[in-house]
Amino acid sequence: MKNMFKYYRNIFSQEFIDRTISGGIKGQITLLIAVIVGVLLIASIIVSLLHIGLDSNKEWCEQIWILYNNFVDSGNQFSQKEWGNRILVSIISLLGSILLGGVLISTISNIIERRVDTIRNGKAYYKSINNHYVIIGYNNITISLIKNLYKEEPNASILIMSSKNSENIRHALQAHLDQNEENNIYIYFGNIESLEELKKLNIDKAKEVYIMGEDNDYGRDSKNIKCVHNISLLKGKVEEGYELPVYTLFEHLASYSIIQRLDIMNNSQNEASQTKRANNIYFRPFNLYENWARRLWSFYALEDNLLYDPLDYEPICFLPDGSIKNHDKYVHLVIVGFCEMGQAILLEALRVCHYANYDDSIESKSRIRTKITIIDKNIEHLREHFTAEFPNLDNQINDIQITFRDEDVCSPSVRKDLTLWAEDPQQLLTIVICVSDSDESIKLGLNLPGEIYQSETRVLIRQEIQTDLGQIIHKDNKCYRNVKIFGMLEHGVSKNMLQDEIPSYINQEYDDFYNKGCTQQFIKNLYQCMITNKTTEFKQEKSRARKNWINLEENMRWANRYQIDTYLVYLKTLGYKIARSLNENQKEISPTVYNEKLSDNKLQILMRMEKYRWNAERTIEGWKYGKVRNNNYRIHHLIIPFSQVPEKEKLKDRQVIDNLPYLISLAGYKLYK
Questions:
Q1: Rounded distance, CA 110 to CA 116, Å?
Q2: What is the reported pTM?
């Protein structure tokens, strides 16, 4: 009894009532029920102690039943004849009207209002959500990502956590998504660095996680790494092959390039146990600028509806007699603005600009090299930082010449040179405007010397937001027929690029052949399983490649990823193109026909192209030449000219060329002339 009095004294205290009213549904309902039960209990005690007879039936339970009826329905008072009873039931009825009428309605209204406010502020959490996508952080490409996810899975549930105002995020989503898409999106307000907040995302039941970070957040890339580790902790143990994909955006190229060289999951330590984390997630970093650079001219360019002309728009390719068409021409790429987008464009060009007419068997000064010119009026400061990060570009990439010019693109000397380059019949000129300001970018791109637009020179203009003006320019077939826009945020995420299916096949081929000594080639075997409908074996082999890929160190994955960027260049050199489907006039080229047409001379030239691509890719990744290989310090004895490579090592370059038609088919494309 003493505890009961203490309980009721506590719930009627001002502090408790204020906390309950401003709290959740459970507390408010509990308080209301406790008050009702208390009133009925006190009335029952009074009736019992004073021996009040509310009915001719003197049983105690009947007396309580009459009390209850008067409490819930004041119309029952007329049955009482004695004035003492009438006063008691009047008080009981009045309290019932107050509690079940005013207080109950107020409580329900308060509950509804609190719930609406909770949802509006992103503080409503749902434990039942599963098999969902999680987006952590909200920034300028989140809407683009959501649209990509809905293309892949129209009815997907998407859970967004951000420290930004949840209502503002909801309004932004409503402006870009239809009603059906909005209904499947849940917005949580929370600190993405907090493990406790992340627990509310049902990570153990999630399908995929995207760590985007918050716009203009100081230390965003470092916070994203911390978030990756927390996701790994929350996921717990998983069966091999069921690792949770965690796609992580890195805002800056500098931190992104560092991440490429480190294996942050295998090197990370559990602070509590000081033991290595289980490999329960698949960590996949990406960068917006690199994504766009790879979508301009690489294998991934085929995904985009806004197709861009290759840098060798007059193909440097084989003629039927085996000679090289346009053998005296060279690609010249001019990058205006050396911001992060400009740097990403340069790095991608270094990976793909390797052509059949570069011959390392002739005198150096007679060789035809790709030329890349970077123009920026603040180039000296930018170049120092860039060179410190990528120190060996000049002396290890033999077939590409890089020139930096500390000038304004509008200066008379630069405009004069642009005119000369556009009129030079040997140059295949492409100008990429990479300045950060969209209006400035348009102004520069449309006011180059007139000779630029009269020639076949290609001009690319960076536009973060796809405007009507940009679309008009992109579709123009007259003066600006060769001018295109790129860099739009809404095309900033490529699911196909992030999923790494083809790179995983390349890695498995290498692992089987060089590490395990298998005589059967993985890629060709996988292709045969596909075309002969050996579904079970095909799935098993794909699963084996995926498991090996996930267990591979992060810094070793990049060589496989970047290898496929030059596939379009190699196929174009052979006179081939690829497409998802062919029309009646296009005949598919089978791998057998591909190999029959691949003469020894063509094969040697393509192997040479692949070797110089590999040299460039390894150099960008921080490797340098040394007589003895050292993986820790990124020293490699094979970053040398093709003519100096031992015949045994050339087999790796040959495998790349031999496997091309099989990989193209496995990626869902068809090869044609």
A1: 10
A2: 0.83
